[in-house]
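hey can u check if this looks right to u? its 230 residues, i copy pasted from the old doc so theres a chance i mangled smth
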Amino acid sequence: MQRERILLVEDNRDLAASIFESLEQAGFQPDYASDGAQALHQVKTTTPPFDAVVLDVGLPRVNGFEVCSRLRQDGFQAPILMLTAQGAADQVIEGLERGADDYIIKPFEIKILIARIRAQIRRYLSLPDNAGLVRRGDIALDTNRCRLALPSGQVCTLTPLQAQLIHTLMRNAPRVVSREELESALWSDEERPASDALRTHLYQLRRLIQAAGGPPLIQTSGKQGYCLVL
């Protein structure tokens, strides 16, 4: 699976080096810009596009707020996480209003930053695009037509419930999703069926994917629940 590409925009070289190394260790593919103008150029010219931008506020040439605004105006849709030592409420509000998805105050624990980057990327990847497509790894779900495209090139036609089931697993991958979470995503409390209904739907979905030449995407994790293996 291709590693997610992260653009780190930070003018403090020591801090940038530390974050950059941590991003690599966490399995990301990081790139670096030391000022706002360089960041705007890299986002514009990089293909495939970045999966997230970690953006300091106090940047030379073009500050982080302006970078965020311009990226959104130019159609950049991936998550933007802003870093700043300025924790005043009005600055947090300005960052969010300019289009940032998250706002992290310095100093911070790097493991918290990594977790929040991952959470924002998961949320972004789980949103259908204008054509109703959700992509994760080598599979793509057409949420409008309930069709799942597999790495084999085959396409499975799903029931609406099966489409919601695989979408929930895609949205949370690679995290293990508990039985209770999956049932809540599929049925309201009033509609919740017999206890073996979820297992039956998972079995049918696995059989459908297998028959189309797909890999064993859905894995049972003991008594914890189920996860998508990409």
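The chain has a mean pLDDT of 87.
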